[in-house]
Predict the 3D structure of the following.
Amino acid sequence: GELEFWFALIKVIAILALIVTGIFLIAKGFSAASGPASLTNLWSHGGMFPNGWHGFILSFQMVVFAFVGIELVGLTAGETENPQKVIPKAINQIPVRILLFYVGALFVIMCIYPWNVLNPNESPFVQVFSAVGIVVAASLINFVVLTSAASAANSALFSTSRMVYSLAKDHHAPGLLKKLTSSNVPSNALFFSSIAILIGVSLNYLMPEQVFTLITSVSTICFIFIWGITVICHLKYRKTRQHKAKANKFKMPFYPLSNYLTLAFLAFILVILALADDTRVALFVTPVWFVLLIILYKVQTRRGHKMK
């Protein structure tokens, strides 16, 4: 948790610095080779979708992958001192942070540099900071990227190790994985999660050109399944535990319409994955993974019953 705080702080400072720098350049009418920084750059140079909707729609897969792990807000409820107060506050802040850190950063970048002059081989963050004379901009952003990667790995290790531990505790995973250290850390589950990450690193050496798209698209499908099951479970909870649902002070807005709209959007993402050749492979690979999990689950539950 302490590591995540500092990792996240570095990212937040970098993005806020970008936004502040961008607003300053726009206000001063900063002029680059492409022309002056202006709000008109958002809709000029061919309009909002100069090459049509195709690229915009295909980008949804990567956008969904970018938000993988957002469900960790709910996972931390078990280790939060006052979840009834903290969790609703954290969830309500998510849309604000998306608007500020994602939309805000894109807004200033596109105002300074039109889409058709941005160099895809160079970070737009580096271009903006270099524009104000920060010579070490590239090294600075590389440092931020590395800490962001460490942040993602850190949160993934935390969440995965806790989930694996919970599965082992309920006899849905090998009992060896529920071992705790003297400080209540699920050490074996943590080592297992680290090995999974190591496999991903190994794939980067075996298939460097395809591994990123493959891993991101497979992850997207897996999390679509997780999020879909979560939404369905919420529907079932509201129907079968109505007395508890009424007592809950933090209710899902526009239930059940919001549930069905969410499921429809997740189905839409699956259709998008089928449109591109490089992401379509994941639609065939992921079901094999699910079948393997089902087989392992059946074997483990049978052993669990025999142990009882």
Observations:
- The chain has a mean pLDDT of 82.
- Residues 1-158 form one domain.
- Strands lie at 31-32, 35-36.
- The first strand starts at residue 31 and ends at 32.
